[in-house]
Design brief:
25% helix; alpha+beta; 7-stranded antiparallel sheet; 43% strand; single chain
Length: 112
Amino acid sequence: MAEPEFTATGVRIERSRRSLTRAGQVKIRDGRLELLTSYGREIDSAPVDSVQAGKPWFAARDRARATVNGTRYVLTLGGAGASTADAEGAGAQTVDRFLAAVRSAHDGGSKG
């Protein structure tokens, strides 16, 4: 089974209500999830099958949460430069793609 691939740019990455970057990147490649700053510096990374991800209960639709190496992050995946409604809609689709990529890695890891 092919590894899931995912890339999102312009991502706000927060840890404990503290913004780490407002225009970061989230990448899934070669079986690893990487959280990067806007300059490409690594914030955190781990094998994608060890990452827990989901949607926060009471948050905008363009947000996802991810636990990487025991650290909880909130990812805002809204589209940069779009109106608020458009950004949230595009962000919700990006969140769904992100969660599907993580889920796919978990399913592939348990079968192999």
